[in-house]
Amino acid sequence: MRTANINSVRCIGIKVASALLGLGLLIGPGGALRAAEPQVPAPRINADPAFPFSREIEAFAKANEAGPAVADATLFLGSSSIRLWDIGGSFPDIGTVNRGFGGATTPDVLHYYKRLLPKAKPRSILVYVGENDLAAGATPAEVANNVLTLLRQLRADYPKAHIAYLSLKPSPIRWTLWPKMAAVNMTVAARSRVTRFDYLDVGRVLLAADGLPDASLFRPDGLHMNPRGYMLWTQLVDAYLDEAVAAERGPVSPS
Question: Which Pfam families does the protein's record reference (predicted)?
Answer without folding.
Answer: Lipase_GDSL_2
